[in-house]
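ok posting inputs for the 4'-phosphopantetheine job
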Amino acid sequence: MSTAIYPGSFDPVTLGHYDIIERSSRIFDRVIVGVLRNSAKSPLFSEEERVNMIRHVARNLPNVEVKAFDGLLVEFAREEKASVIVRGLRAVTDFEYELQMAQMNRVIAPEIDTLFLTTNLKYAYLSSSMAKEVAMYGGKLSAFLDPEIASLVRAKFAPEK
Ligand code: PNS
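and the output
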């Protein structure tokens, strides 16, 4: 059985992430979306919220599981018996960071490969941080986020009552 890990901060999950999750679920028998618990990026959403949001968008993909992880990604991959790490590449600007990360991971865990999927062109410009910025200024989110996720993001930026 082939198992892949799709790791990230997912703060929040975007339509671009979903595209990668859905395509990975067609390539592998089992896909584990790994949510980095203590992201250095001070996430807007808690670990639990991020996990639940991904579970919501991936609810119709039976071979996709969502789990939070701490520490080294390759250790998490080993625990889950995953032989592949999936990452999405949007543009050449992603490449340097992604290549460095893949090479680091390969030195630590030579038995685990990184597979890059090129993002659907529709979402090539999209990132969680840009979507949050649009939300902060009250912009429309339907091109970036699942409707349920969009309302959760909007609620984070809504003035306290
Ligand atoms: O969505 P992101 O923030 O680009 O994802 C980055 C992530 C979670 C894949 C990366 O930060 C990560 O793997 N962190 C876990 C710690 C680790 O293994 N670091 C060594 C790889 S260089």
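notes: The first helix runs from residue 15 to 27. The pocket of 4'-phosphopantetheine is lined by residues 7-9, 36, 72-73, 101, 104-105 (CB under 6 Å).
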